[in-house]
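Field notebook, page 376. I keep forgetting to write these up properly, so this time I am using the form the group agreed on. The chain and the ligand, flavin mononucleotide, are recorded exactly as supplied. Prediction of the bound pose follows.
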Amino acid sequence: MDIQFDSGRDFVRKPRLADGTMRFGIFWPYHRSPVPSEMLLKRNPSVLDLDAHIRLAKAVEAAGVDFGLIADGYAPGSDAATEVEFQDPRANAILWPIPIFLNTRTLGLASTIHTSYVHPVLTARFAGYLDYLSGGRWGWNIVNGFRDAEARLFGFDKLPDHDASYDMADEYLSVVQQLWQGEPIDHQGKNFKVNGKLARPQPGSQPLLVSASSSPRGQQFAARYCDYLFTVVLGEEVWPQLRANLRKYAEEAGRAAPPEVLVMGDFLVRDRAGEAADLYDTIMSTRHVEAQKIWSNTKQPLHKGKVKEAEPLRLVGTTREVADTILSLRDRIGLSGLLLRMPLWNASEGERIGPVLDILEKEGVWKRPADRGHSW
Ligand SMILES: Cc1cc2nc3c(=O)[nH]c(=O)nc-3n(C[C@H](O)[C@H](O)[C@H](O)COP(=O)(O)O)c2cc1C
C-alpha cells in the first residue's frame, strides 16, 4: 500500500520496528473511574471532558509514551457500576482518537473494534480515515466480544461460540485486509459476503494490529496476524508457556517472529517513599464492592477464576522504585510492553512517566521514540 493522501499536517507516520527495546502505552482512560470507586469518581475528570484527554495526551507524548489503547464495549456493566461512572459513560474507541490525533504529533492510538458486531466494510473504512487523520498513527485492537448484554444489544440471543467467533475474526480480518488494498474484491465466506471496491482513502500502510485475548485460540489469532498480543498473564510461571505458544503458532502461520506481548500495569508515582503505596491502597480499599461484581458476573471471565493473579502489575512507588520493578520484570520474564493504567488520570500523573523512562533509557532497555523513528 502506498501513501495515497497527505493531510498536510506535520504528523509522524509510525512504522512497526521490532528492535528488542521496550514499548510503553497508556491503557487510555475510557471511563472516569478505572477501578469502580467513589474516591475516583470525585478525583478524576469526566470521561467526556475532551480537554482533559488532550492535556493527558500532550503530557504523555512529551514524556516519551508511544501510544494509547482505547478499550471499548457497548453496554453498561450494571446500575452499581454506572453510579460511580465505571464503564458508563465511556469514550468511543473509534471516534475518541480523532480530537487527540489533531492535538498531538507522534502519539499513536489503537481503537478497540469488535469483529462480532461491526461490519468489516465499516471497519476497513474507519481505518482509512483514522490513518489519514492521524498521518499513520492509528492501530486496531481486535476483539470478538465477550459480554452477554452486548450480544443482546446487537440482537443475538447469546454470545457466539468462543472458537467460532475467532474463526469469524479470521475471516473478518482477511476481508478488511483485502479492502485495504483498494482493489475490487469478491469474498463469499461463511460469515460475510463482500463484493466490490471500497472508496478511498485506504490506510497508507497496514495499521498496527493488536489482539486482546487470553485463550490459546486467541493467542493463535494474535500469532497469525498481529503485532501485539494484549493479554492477562495469570502468574509469572505462565510466561514461558505463553511465549512457547506464540512461537509455535507464529511458525505454523509462516511468520518470522511472534507478536510482542503487552500487559497492563497500574501506574502511580509519588516522590516520598511509601506515599504512592498508601494512596494506591486507599484507592483499592475503597473500591465499590457491588460495582466490582461485573467481573465475576461475566460468563467468560478474563481472570478464569484467578482474580488475584489477574490484577494489573503494581507499578506503584517512587520513580526509582517503579523503574526498578520494570527492570526486574524485564530480567525475569523478558517483559517488552506495558500498558499503563492510571487510577488517577490527568496531565500531571502523565508527566510522572518521563522520569521513569529516563532511568530505563540509561539502563539500555528503552530508547526515545525520536531515536527509533517513532516506531510502535
Ligand atoms: C487484556 C484484554 C483486554 C480486552 N479488552 C476488551 C475490550 O476492550 N472490549 C471487549 O469487548 N473485549 C475485550 N477483551 C475480551 C477479548 O476480546 C475476548 O473476547 C475475551 O477475552 C475472550 O477470549 P479469550 O478466551 O481468548 O480471552 C479483552 C481481553 C483481554 C485479555
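OBSERVATIONS:
- The chain has a mean pLDDT of 95.
- Residues 71-73, 112, 114, 143-146, 212-215, 217-218, 230-232, 300, 302 surround flavin mononucleotide (CB under 6 Å).
FOLLOW-UP: compare against the apo run.
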